[in-house]
Amino acid sequence: MKFNRTSEYFCLLSGENPELAQYELESIVHAMDNKIYLKPTSDSRIIRIIPNRSLSTKENFYFIQKLIQRATLVHCCCRTLYYIEYRNNFLSNFENLVESFDEKDLYGLESTNSFCVRTRRIRNPTGLLAESQITQKISEFFGAAILKLFPNKKVDLERPEETYRVIVSKYGLWFGLHAFDSLRKIVRKRTARDRPFFHPSSMNPILQRTLVNLAALKEGQWLLDPFCGTGGALLEAARLGFRSIGIEIDRRIIWGAIRNLKSDDETKSLTNLIFGDAKHLGFRFGAVSAIVTDPPYGTAASTQGYNLSDLLIEFFTEIKCILLPKSRVVISIPSTVEFEEKAATILNASYKTFYQYVHRSLTRKILVFSLLE
Ligand SMILES: C[S@@+](CC[C@H](N)C(=O)[O-])C[C@H]1O[C@@H](n2cnc3c(N)ncnc32)[C@H](O)[C@@H]1O
Predict the structure, then answer these.
(1) What's the mean pLDDT in 92-110?
(2) Looking at residue 98, what is its pLDDT?
């Protein structure tokens, strides 16, 4: 199979947890009222973005850029120029690929910019060639095709004006013009230890931001973290432009959270903290549209003498009364705790489960509950 879709995009997702990466994108698109569409491919690490025909090119561009900048588990997003699915294996099809590649696939490119082609193999499709041999061969092929059509272009491997990307997956080869960068690299550089106050229970910022995205917050909505600890979720929500309220029961930790939130000019006006108990939140019915939280497991963070299951039952019973219909609750608990069925019944919600390996003695279970009408 071969196709080219000049108005489509493809994204390369993080390899750590492609299912979670896909759901993060779906949640952001949901928060944008499905202005654009996502289409999974045979490879779980690649997802297609289909523009909305009823929107202008500029509007589609705006929504796609917003999606990619908000996501944490995306490596890159390219405008699709060409895709070919292998018939048998990659090597026996390389000649086939050369034959089927049509210069028309490069439709709409600038004729003068300097460029480079970067090839990345996400699964070894041959098992015979070393990665560098495959990637070099492919980069040269596409580089030569571009130069044939646009002789005025120059190859510049250091500071190219345009970057073309080739992704060699197990099932096919994707070729596109790099369009948007995610902020993943920037978020990855942040660590909880860089903040003025650190506690061993703090979640790493990239996962914290993923959880905020899974809550599918729409413009103007705010987020509640009833076990907010040092304030990680509040900080990431604020960086995405959302207001948030955190509740914390431990005085020492809430003082630390205040220091963390105040130290950041970008976020301090969007975040609020309340010294209180997640089991007795006291918000009015329907006041909350999204909860993202990481309750204590009783190891690094104290459950205040509670058994974790009892604490969760009281907590879910409390939030049931304050959530709006169709709200989302995103919660991270140890994978050994079986609580999702009970919580879904209490909330009258459907749910999705994802697993995130942290270290030898902790795998997190991320649960995303979507309340029914
Ligand atoms: C795992 S930590 C949260 C970590 C947070 N995500 C961060 O990045 O710092 C859980 C927090 O819940 C707090 N906590 C425990 N019981 C609570 C309760 N009943 N109400 C509110 N907070 C509680 C603990 O003191 C702890 O700081």
Answers:
(1) 68
(2) 61
- Tell me whether strands 115-121 and 162-168 are parallel, antiparallel or unpaired: parallel
**Whole-structure pTM value:** 0.93
333 lines ligand 1 (CB under 6 A): no
Ligand 1: distance of its center to the CA of 309 in Å? 15
The pLDDT of residue 366 = 98
Look up the CATH number of domain 2-181: 3.30.2130.30
Q: Assess whether pLDDT exceeds 90 at residue 17.
A: yes
- The pLDDT score that the predictor gives to residue 4 is 43
* Residue 128 clears pLDDT 60, i.e. is over it: no
pLDDT tier at 224, thresholds 50, 70, 90: very high
Query: Out of 3.40.1110.10, 3.30.70.120, 3.40.50.150, 3.40.50.970, which CATH number does the structure's domain 190-371 have?
Result: 3.40.50.150
Give the residue range(s) of CATH 3.30.2130.30 domains in the chain. Answer: 2-181
C-alpha torsion 134→136→142→145, nearest 10: -120
Which part of the chain has CATH 3.40.50.150? 190-371
Q: Is 227 in the pocket of ligand 1 (CB under 6 A)?
A: yes
> What would the two tokens of residue 335 be?
């994978």
- CB distance 248 to ligand 1 below 6 Å: yes
